[in-house]
Design goal:
The complex is a heterodimer of chains A (about 180) and B (about 210). Chain A has 8 helices and no strands. Chain A has about 180 residues and is an all-alpha fold. Chain A has 2 domains: about 100 residues, no CATH class; about 40 residues. In chain A, helix 1 runs antiparallel to helix 2, helix 1 packs parallel to helix 5 and helix 7 runs antiparallel to helix 8. Chain B folds into 2 domains: about 140 residues, no CATH class; about 60 residues, no CATH class. In chain B, helix 4 packs across helix 5 and helix 7 packs antiparallel against helix 8. The mean pLDDT of chain B is about 85. Classes of the chains: A mainly alpha (about 180), B mainly alpha (about 210). The interface between A and B is large, with 103 and 110 residues.
Chain lengths: ~180, ~210
């Protein structure tokens, strides 16, 4: 029972205090876990490695693995997922209503005017990080894949899902 | 939005199932974290379905990114809420996280060593460049629909340079958003807005 509560509060903390997405969540998780030692460092490393190779929100993938190792069963996973989901829902509802209520307010408009073009650079940073950690720059086939998917998504109506699937197949066939 | 439109929306049943399916698709293929979802949200929410206007996507993603927690989940909740209120938000969020829950659970319990399987590694070597290409395309699309005046252009240019530099030096990217919010305020509230809000587009009219 104690473990369940600590797992839950840990993931609530991640949901409330980690700004900046997946990597911020990951570093806070390592810090918090080193204090409470709910799972071992080795376990955490493999949880994170698995989470990064799976699709979907990194926080959810991590919550599943972390909760499972912490309690030796699915109950921990459930509690961890709830811990990350509940703050997300509450915070987003508050924010959406706040933005809606003050959408004509000069300050709110000014902030949105500033962050909307800025998210383009934030996505650029995230794209750079992905390319860098996967050593995309070192491989001509991978650079070509970047260019092809960029052009196809802008110019055609092909669903990105098919491009991602094709990338996976090309990877298995060509990139050993 | 005119009244006719909102009435029509009220009559129409909330597209909860469609939201769930759209976000389940996105969640199943979003390899590489929250921002990988941006191109897919653009596709599903404003190209396949007519849920969120093209130029509103940037606002949704930027607000979701400025909030704590997972950006993938925040933006699902936001889009879901715009489309179908509270239940829409839940449907989108469930769609976004359910594939991840199932996959992560199966891999944790049954497939230890999934991430070191040679096929998985090879597949990811093909997938990562594709999703980064999609992200670059998403940047281009956001630029086209959101950057229309000098002020936005300056902020966008700054954010790309700062985004990459902060990533290289492993500094939290939230500072780009924080600083841009300040620049945005400065551009909007001071007399610089006369210059900042001037469009650099030649004609094209209103898009």
């Amino acid at each position: 029972m104690n473990v369940l509560i600590s797992v839950f509060t840990l993931f609530v903390k991640l949901g409330v205090f980690s700004f900046g997405g997946g990597y911020a969540i990951m570093s806070l998780l390592f810090v918090e876990n080193s204090i409470h030692e709910i799972v071992t460092e080795n376990q955490l490393t493999s949880i994170v490695a698995l989470a990064q190779s799976l699709p979907g929100p990194f926080a959810i993938n991590t919550a599943i693995g972390y909760g499972f190792y912490a309690t030796n069963g699915p109950l921990g996973s459930l509690v961890a997922v709830l811990g990350i989901v509940i703050p997300c829902l509450i915070i987003m509802f508050l924010v959406i209503h706040f933005v809606e209520a003050f959408k004509h307010n000069k300050i709110i408009r000014g902030i949105i005017y500033g962050i909307t073009p800025a998210v383009i650079g934030v996505i650029g940073g995230a794209a750079y990080k992905l390319m860098d950690t996967s050593h995309v720059f070192a491989d001509i086939v991978q650079i070509l894949l970047v260019a092809i998917s960029l052009v196809l998504f802008v110019k055609t109506k092909i669903h990105p899902i098919f491009l991602i699937l094709a990338g996976g197949i090309i990877g298995i066939l060509l990139l050993k | 939005m005119n009244t006719e439109n909102t009435e029509e929306k009220k009559k129409k049943k909330k597209p909860l199932l469609a939201l769930f399916i759209a976000f389940a698709k996105i969640g199943t293929f979003a390899f590489g974290g929250g921002y990988v979802m941006v191109p897919m949200i653009q596709k599903e929410a404003s190209e396949t379905h007519d849920w969120v206007a093209k130029d509103k996507i940037g606002e949704v993603i930027s607000i979701s990114s400025s909030m704590p927690g997972a950006i993938a989940m925040n933006s699902s909740v936001y889009v879901g809420y715009i489309v179908g209120g509270f239940s829409g938000a839940l449907a989108a969020l469930m769609g976004c996280i359910l594939p991840a829950i199932i996959l992560a659970f199966c891999c944790t319990v049954f497939l230890s060593g999934f991430q070191s399987n040679s096929y998985v590694i090879s597949a990811l070597k093909g997938i990562v460049p594709v999703v980064t290409g999609l992200m670059l395309a998403a940047m281009y699309k956001l630029f086209k629909s959101n950057v229309k005046d000098y002020g936005s252009l300056i902020i966008c240019g700054f954010s790309i340079v700062a985004g990459v530099i902060l990533t290289i030096y492993k500094v939290n990217i939230i500072f780009v958003l924080l600083f841009s919010a300040l620049i945005g305020l400065f551009f909007s509230l001071t007399s610089i807005s006369l210059f900042a809000k001037k469009t650099f587009l030649k004609k094209e009219g209103t898009e």
